[in-house]
Specification:
There is one protein chain. Helices cover about 80% and strands about 0% of the residues. The protein is built from 19 helices and no strands. The termini are far apart.
Length: about 425
């Protein structure tokens, strides 16, 4: 019996050592921008936005699962694989899409942090610099595992918003009706659907999870655990997105004096009649701040890993700052400083969030295209997709890629 208990303890410790990259990247996926986009979606289109979130669950898992196999089998990051298999020029293009996505994401994270602070009467000139200093300090913890634990701890703050769902009592009949209603002819509906697609499958997620697997020194022996890690994270992140859609759909269905959501304060005002002013501010603060901090950490690391992989520079959190890797830490610091600086100038959080997520959707053809090509070229035959699963994944990716291209028209029209 003692031997069996020791074995169980050993297995649990091993599980916790392996789990993490999929969970943290998914918690970061529900960042401040995504949550604001989900809130706007629920407020504007009510429960009709639940169905797109459900349909994106398998697509999100399949995309990230490919990065898991690429990282575990090759032991190389995403940018490095593109450079080795397609050349430096294509690698620079992929790094460019990553940079655009990462910069946009960091703007929404720091804008979210500023919005939460101002909700409590604290100036952004205090909250944003403090958050920047904290995020920079985390990278100097001495190992990837420590950084990952801190990130997951911050991201779990998003789950507090479940309390809002329990307090607001959404109509199950209205939810059921929304699930079968698809106003696909309306350009503004398609615009928000594109924002939600871009809010779920982001370029920096692919770079981060593959880089994290490499930095964590995981191997192909950990494949099943990492797939489970990714699946759990996928359901959590989409559950949080649906949670925000439902709560704000329920609130705005009963509270009709909503002229548009432009800030965290607007979100709190919508929820206040149902949750109380203090509860609304507290639950929004915990969820938005948790999502923003973990996402800022992940996005900056993803961008730093991607750029340094393309440049073939040393890139590991497991090595303390030295003369050989100062470029890695410098890029990470600059990413936060630039993002924070731009937000301190000015921002409109909701409009910025939706726009950033739509841009992510427009970038998906490049991101998913490289991902499919690497899966077919960089992996040995025994680790590639086969049979019906290969066709399902490929078709789903092409549908999302086609949707991204299709959205160019409506986006140009609305802008």
């Amino acid at each position: 019996m003692l031997a069996l208990n020791n074995l169980n303890i050993t297995n649990k410790r091993h599980l916790f050592k392996v789990f993490g990259p999929g969970l943290i990247v998914m918690l970061a996926d529900t960042d401040a921008g995504c949550l604001m986009t989900a809130a706007q979606s629920g407020a504007q289109w009510k429960y009709t936005m639940i169905l797109p979130q459900l349909l994106l669950i398998p697509i999100l898992f399949m995309a990230q699962e490919m990065t898991v196999r690429l990282g575990l089998v090759t032991g190389k990051g995403h940018g490095e694989l593109i450079r080795e298999n397609f050349g430096r020029g294509w690698a620079i293009l992929s790094a460019g899409t990553l940079a655009i996505s990462a910069i946009g994401a960091l703007l929404t994270e720091f804008a979210g942090i500023a919005g939460v602070g101002e909700l409590w009467g604290i100036s952004k000139w205090l909250t944003v610099p403090l958050a920047t200093a904290l995020l920079i300090a985390i990278a100097f913890c001495g190992s990837y595992r420590r950084v990952e634990k801190i990130g997951i701890g911050l991201g779990l703050g998003e789950l507090f918003f479940i309390i809002a769902l329990l307090m607001i009592h959404p109509s199950l009949t209205a939810i059921g009706h929304g699930l079968i209603t698809v106003p696909y002819r309306d350009p503004s509906y398609l615009y928000l659907v594109a924002a939600n697609v871009g809010a779920v499958v982001m370029p920096w997620m692919i770079f981060y999870q593959q880089g994290a697997i490499v930095d964590k020194k995981l191997t192909i022996a950990n494949l099943k655990q990492e797939q489970h890690d990714t699946a759990v994270g996928t359901f959590i992140t989409q559950g949080i997105m649906i949670l925000f859609v439902v709560v704000f759909a329920a609130a705005t269905s009963r509270y009709h004096a909503v002229n548009g959501l432009q800030s965290v304060e607007d979100l709190a005002k919508v929820l206040a009649p149902f949750l109380g002013s203090f509860n609304a501010r507290m639950l929004l603060s915990l969820s938005l701040l948790g999502g923003a901090l973990v996402a800022a950490l992940v996005v900056a690391l993803a961008g730093t890993w991607g750029i340094t992989e393309v440049l073939n520079w040393p890139h590991s959190l497991n090595e303390k700052l030295n003369r050989s890797n100062y470029g890695f830490y410098l890029i990470y610091i600059l990413a936060h400083v630039i993002g924070a600086g731009l937000v301190l100038i000015n921002f409109n959080l909701v409009a910025l969030s939706v726009t950033v997520e739509v841009i992510n959707a427009l970038l998906l053809p490049i991101v998913l295209g490289f991902l499919l090509l690497l899966e077919a070229k960089a992996l040995p035959p025994e680790y590639r997709m086969h049979g019906w699963y290969k066709w399902v994944v490929t078709v789903c990716c092409f549908i999302v890629m086609a949707f991204g291209l299709y959205m160019i028209g409506p986006v140009v029209h609305l802008w």
